Amino acid sequence: MKLVLFELPGRGDVWPGVLTDQGVVNVADVVRVGHSPQLTMQGIIDDFDRLRPELERRVRTSETLPLSSVRLRAPLPRPGKILACIANYWEHGALEARPLNMFLKSSDAVIGPGDTIVLPEFTEPWIFMHEAELALVIKGPTKMVKREDWRRAVFGYTGMIDVSARGEGRRTWKTGSWLGKSFDTFAPIGPCIATADEIPNPNDVHVQFWVDGQLRHNYNTDDMEHLVPELVEFATTIMTLNSGDVIACGTNHEGLGPLQDGEVVDFEIHGIGRMQLRVRDPLTRSWEKGIYMGADSTNPEAVKRNRPQPAP
User: Fold this and answer.
1) Phi and psi, residue 221, nearest 5°
2) Best-predicted range by mean pLDDT (73-77, 97-101, 304-308)
3) Positions of CATH 3.90.850.10 in the chain
4) Tell me, what's the pLDDT at 9?
5) Closest Cα to residue 115, out of 9, 186, 181?
6) ∠ CA 161-207-297 to the nearest 5 degrees?
7) What's the whole-number mean pLDDT along residues 178-186?
8) Percent of all residues in the chain with a pLDDT value above 70, rounded to a whole number
9) Contact 258/291 with Cβ under 8 angstroms?
10) Confidence check: pLDDT of 291 > 80
11) CA dist., res. 132 & res. 256, Å (int)
12) What gap in Å lies between CA 158 and CA 73, rounded to an integer?
């Protein structure tokens, strides 16, 4: 099942819904509507086992709103925590995995489908890059989850673009600070939450990202250095995770490129969905277009995999 939050044009209210191939089914009269859209979605996560039969019945019997008649919003507008993996994909011919590590990204940076990524009005010699990532949606509270039991902590999956400020020559990895990950609008999430049963194996999912039609990210999540069960164990060893918290699984950096004023980006995780956003830069800065890291080794027609192969 694919869960969404949506608006009707001109109304302003945000409603919970189920996304189908035909459109969106409003389920506001089935679920507990909280004091905020985030609390509404957290309530659905907490009550989902009880709610599911009625949600499925509504999908079969209720009116479906065409997708063109609604505006999808971020399915988790203000997660309590966004934990994001540092790197976490095999890259640049590496033969050994890097140590697993994560950082906290501000939940105030969240936007959703159809919104605009706004580059900050800083005059630092930065370049602003996209990192398209699979994200885990947590069902909690949960703590000290062993990797073999990881499924009890994962309610479902969504997509996140970890927009990142980079500096020092514009093409290096350094951000100087993780604050460069948390500018307003730097965490697009969506277009929906696909419940866990929709994705049999989160380490076999195809991720794609385009800028003005140019394919940049094109990878499979089987190429993670540290797989999803380990991410869950690591994060819950450090802190308690609650319903609606998010773990972003990292990205394949060999598809990185700049974001700049006037561009349109499309982001798709197969099995979850696709969303489009725009980019605005009040300073109208300009960088060389294209793929920066790994430009010589990225074949835009093939899913990129860099995992070392065992010796024959």
Assistant:
1) -75, -5
2) 73-77
3) 82-280
4) 83
5) 186
6) 100
7) 91
8) 90
9) no
10) no
11) 9
12) 13
Phi, psi of 267 (to 5 degrees): -135, 125
pLDDT band at residue 311 using 50, 70 and 90 as cut-offs: low
Per-residue b or e along 196-211, where b marks 16 or more CB atoms closer than 10 Å to that residue's CB:
beebeebeebebbbbb
Q: Cα–Cα distance between 48 and 104 in angstroms, integer?
A: 27
Instruction: Report the C-alpha gap between 87 and 265 in whole angstroms.
Output: 21
Q: Are 23 and 67 in contact (CB under 8 A)?
A: yes
Distance between CA 173 and CA 165 in Å, rounded? 10
CA distances from 27 to 6, 76, 117, 137, 289 (A): 11, 16, 29, 20, 43
Fold classification of 82-280 is: Fumarylacetoacetate hydrolase; domain 2 (3.90.850)
Ordered DSSP codes for the chain: -EEEEEE-TTT--EEEEEE-SS-EEE-TTTS---SSHHHHHHHHHHHHHHHHHHHHHHHHHS--B-GGGSEEE-SSSS-S-EEEES--B--TT-SSPPPP-EEEE-GGGEE-TT-EEE-----SS-EEE--EEEEEEE-SSB-S--GGGGGGGEEEEEEEE--EEE-TTTTSS--SSGGGG-STT-EEEEEEEEEGGG-S-TTS-EEEEEETTEEEEEEEGGGBSS-HHHHHHHHHHHS-B-TT-EEE----GGG--B--TT-EEEEEETTTEEEEEEEE-TT------S--TTTTT--TTS-B--PPPPP-
The verdict on pTM exceeding 0.90 is yes
